[in-house]
Every structure is written in structure tokens, then in C-alpha cells.
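Standup notes
- DV: blocked on the single-chain target, sequence here:
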Amino acid sequence: MLELMIAGGWLMWPIAACSVIATAIVIERAWTLRRRRVMPTHLITRIWQLHRVNQLTDESIEAIREASPLGRMLAAGLVNRHHSREVMKEAIADTGRHVVAELERFLNTLGTIAAIAPLLGLLGTVFGMIQIFSVIQSAGNGNVGLLAGGISVALLTTAAGLCVAIPALMFHRYFDGRVDQLAIEMEEQALRLVEVIKGEREEQDDPT
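- DV (later): unblocked, structure below
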């Protein structure tokens, strides 16, 4: 592997750095975007039960806020539960934008890596081909083996760039879609909370 890095030239090192950064982002986002971490199960039910027995204190709301991204959105509505339905929804929507932005953290970086890695590889190949033609110009093209070896070395950076870009693009699309789906589901949960707090559901109905 080290020989390939050296043979590919100095542009192999930024490509390798992109690979390390992309791997770190993928691992971190896979851990952060777990559904049970973002949207704990039965959270609306627990809030509804606390609301029924008048135990929605500042301390319990703060605990809900700190527990999960969904909890942050719901807590914003709970803080404004004594105001109108519109005020609750507006508070939830404002907090929701911040929550979604945090869920999308590093995804732009991952997308940038997916875009620039093949360009770095292509740039390395262009530099390599320039060097090969310089050799041809000075020494002639009689040594086919030398030319073939030089071309294979020049193409190393393109192959390396594609090996980084393809999985980076796949994970970027996957995480982007996952965030969109989580955002939709969190919005649905928030609307259920407003319905529960404002009494639009019968008490015997399970809000989950």
C-alpha cells in the first residue's frame, strides 16, 4: 500500500486524507443517526402521562430536552404549552430547524469529498501524463515497457480518487435520505404533541 502511495505521487496523500475524513464522518453519522437515539420510543406517551397528572415541571421538561433531538423539539412546545396552538407550533418549528441542521452536520463535508476526490485523482493522472510525455520528448518512445509502467503509475491517482468518491457519495445520499425521513417523523410526533396538549384527542386514546 505504501509503495502505491509513493508511486502515485504527492496527490495520493490528500486523497488518503479525504479517505480518512470520510470514514470518520460515516462512522460518526451512523452512530448519531440511530433511530432510537434520535426518536426514543413512546416519548409522546410518557409526556402525555406526565401531562395528565400535572407533573410537567421545568425539571422534567429539561430532562426531555436533553435526552434526544426529538426531545428538544417537543420540549420547545411544552415550554409554550400555556400559549396558543400557533405559538406552540412556531416554537417547535424554530427548534426543529436547528435540530435538523445538527442531524445534517458533516454531510456537506462528506458530499464535498465525494466531489473532489475524483478530481484530485484526475489531476494526479494529468500530472503523471505530462511527465510521461516529457520523457518521450527527451528519450523517444522506443521503450514500450517504460511507457506502460509510467501510464499505469499515472492512473493510480484516478483509481484511488474513485475508490474514495464512490462510497463517500453512496453514504452521503444514504444519510441525507435518512435525515429527511427522521425530520418528517419528528414533525409528525410534534404535531401529535400539540394535539395531546391542546385536548384534541380523547384522554383514552393512546397518542403513540
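- Follow-up: Confidence is low (pLDDT under 50) at residues 200-205.
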